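Let us work through a complete example step by step.
Step 1: write down the sequence.
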Amino acid sequence: MNTLAVQRFPVGALRWSVPHEIALDLQVSNRWEALRAASAIVERSRGLNAAPIFRALWRRENAASTGLGNGFALPHARIAGIVEPVTVYARLKPPIGFAAPDHRPASELFVLLVPNNADNAVHLELLALIAEMFSDNAFRAQLSAAPDSVEVRSTFQRWIDKRTSRDGFRQTA
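Step 2: predict the structure and record it as tokens.
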């Protein structure tokens, strides 16, 4: 095996790339509403206050758009009061403007919340892994066709399983 081709991701980065919460056909009309809705989803599922989550996401969004292009946005923020990452996948209906470099509206969001004291390197590796995942056209097509949250979660897991079994890939603790 070519050791130069080995890419290492911490096990946690892989585990957190499968979303905890899933919202399909989320109807919002702009970024502000999308981040409000994601914050409310986390509040309902995790018992966290939505207001500081929204403020952190909105502050990050105002610093620089998290719209990556090709119909995808990756809103992310550091949050007080959590001890491990919290993730939300949302499929938007209709797509909304997210100030992406290609000016295409976002039809999919992957929201990543990490603890305030999270290791910056792991946080960046997780962002890179999610961006890689959403750059895979086959994955995106399967995700788009998934009729329910069970199939969405399975689609994420299959991508991770394929990624971890590929030659030149190892997980590190």
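Step 3: interpret the result. Confidence is low (pLDDT under 50) at residues 1-9, 167-173.
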